Task: inverse folding
């Protein structure tokens, strides 16, 4: 981690440190001489907080349910595409588990999804050159022609709308292989509605036969994306890097590839609803205030979604189980939320924020984990001084427990964003990357094979200790709303 991202250590109040000292347990013991020098009341408080941490760590180790739950959900139920029967099965499974773990309130909340999308059989092959099959998957939330598409391949490599305007006349009837697409300039960012109108008008003028995006995973692996808000809505597919390179080499040699492409996915005839699962254990002193541990249960459908984000689901459930089973006192309520629709643009967490607008000011903090199956190594402070002060207290307490790092930065890309935009302290764990970015993220190999049980236990300990500290800490201040703009 770049040292330039760090802030100087800030002063943390005695009350906050008392709550955060509960994070110490498994690796730290109070030196005898230091304990002798403490005033009796302070020594007693120190001892009590250490005991609490030991209880939490021991309970996580005793649970032995993390891998079993991950296998039940990912191997037993499988992929959990938003709007699918499989996600509904997984949600009902999770609700039963959370009830078993002692949650006092377990329910689901609906929001409007629109039409659900289902994958069908897709295929592609070269009609000239080697005539070999091309590995392809239909981009999610796109419609498709009923017949096979046969056309020449043309590369599009443009940086802005002017460059796209310059090539648009040559795209009619072609299968477009994307190298790069326009991005808005700083000036265009100020009026994204106008930018989108111009962009969409150019795409309509192009009349391309199909568009192919290139997987961001290594070698022959496919990944997936798509949303009801996607710009490209018809005859869109994703091919591997290897096959994209093949098509590019043919074009470089002067041989224009000709492809046959078939897409089989499509939309449900009727609109439907999607759901979030909500479970809670009540605090004793400030039950209307809460710490939210929110993770998305939906996944893409090329694999079983173990690292994105099955691991997050079973860890959130384990935190609730651990704190409930520990019988330790908590001031605030702990609320676990299993979101849907995250992969389609944070749909579930945005719906939650809308539906719970009246209680947002009562949220102490929102935590999520959504960066694969690697060990937690720290948290960004979201560039808020007071939040840095709180998290740096935790950092100081658990630094020897895998050296948690608090960095000066803002993280994006998961459900914490929906809360952060409303000024709520919202933190997404930083994790060791392992093979997440290169292989498993949204890909066809996102399976339980890429999850290490000892890392699950490690992360569950950190999240349990952090959640417990925040449940009992001083109230974190909220910030002004900071809505993000979108170019879509």
Result:
């Amino acid at each position: 981690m770049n040292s330039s991202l760090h802030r100087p250590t800030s002063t943390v109040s005695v009350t906050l440190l008392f709550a955060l000292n509960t994070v110490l347990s498994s690796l730290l013991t109070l030196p005898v001489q230091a304990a002798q020098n403490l005033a009796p009341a302070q020594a007693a408080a120190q001892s009590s907080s250490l005991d609490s941490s030991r209880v939490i760590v021991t309970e996580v180790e005793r649970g032995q349910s993390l891998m079993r739950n991950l296998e039940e959900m990912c191997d037993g139920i499988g992929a959990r595409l938003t709007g699918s029967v499989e996600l509904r099965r997984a949600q009902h499974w999770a609700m039963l588990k959370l009830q078993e773990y002692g949650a006092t309130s377990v329910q689901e909340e609906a929001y409007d999804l629109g039409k659900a999308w289902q994958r069908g059989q897709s295929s592609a092959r070269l009609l000239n050159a080697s005539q070999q099959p091309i590995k392809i998957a239909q981009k999610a939330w796109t419609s498709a022609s009923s017949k096979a598409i046969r056309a020449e391949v043309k590369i599009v490599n443009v940086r802005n709308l002017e460059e796209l305007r310059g090539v648009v006349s040559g795209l009619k009837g072609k299968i477009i292989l994307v190298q790069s697409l326009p991005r808005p300039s700083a000036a265009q960012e100020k009026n994204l509605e106008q930018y989108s109108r111009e962009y969409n008008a150019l795409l309509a003028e192009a009349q391309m036969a199909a568009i192919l995006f290139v997987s961001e995973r290594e070698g022959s692996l496919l990944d997936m994306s798509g949303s009801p808000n996607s710009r490209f809505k018809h005859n869109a597919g994703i091919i591997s890097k290897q096959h994209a390179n093949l098509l590019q080499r043919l074009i470089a040699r002067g041989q224009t590839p000709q492809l046959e492409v078939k897409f089989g996915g499509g939309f449900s005839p009727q609109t439907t609803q999607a759901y979030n699962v909500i479970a809670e254990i009540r605090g004793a002193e400030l039950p209307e205030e809460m710490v939210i541990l929110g993770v998305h249960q939906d996944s893409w459908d090329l694999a079983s979604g173990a690292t994105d984000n099955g691991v997050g689901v079973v860890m959130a459930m384990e935190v609730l189980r651990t704190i409930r089973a520990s019988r330790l006192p908590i001031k605030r309520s702990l609320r676990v939320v299993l979101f849907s629709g995250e992969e389609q643009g944070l749909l579930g967490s945005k719906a939650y924020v809308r539906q719970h607008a009246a209680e947002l000011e009562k949220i102490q903090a929102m935590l999520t984990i959504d960066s694969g199956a690697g060990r937690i190594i720290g948290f960004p402070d979201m560039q808020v001084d007071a939040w840095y002060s709180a998290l740096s207290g935790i950092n100081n307490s658990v630094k020897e427990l895998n050296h948690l790092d608090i960095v000066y930065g803002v993280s994006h890309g998961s459900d914490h964003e929906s809360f952060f935009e409303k000024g709520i302290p919202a933190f997404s764990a930083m994790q060791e990357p392992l093979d997440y970015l290169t292989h498993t993220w949204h890909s066809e190999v996102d399976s339980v094979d890429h999850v290490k049980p000892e890392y699950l236990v490690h992360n569950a300990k950190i999240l349990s200790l952090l959640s417990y500290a925040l449940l009992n800490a001083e109230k974190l201040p909220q910030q002004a709303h900071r809505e993000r703009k979108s170019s879509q």
Observations:
- The mean pLDDT is 89.
- The chain has two domains: 3-115+271-472, 120-264.
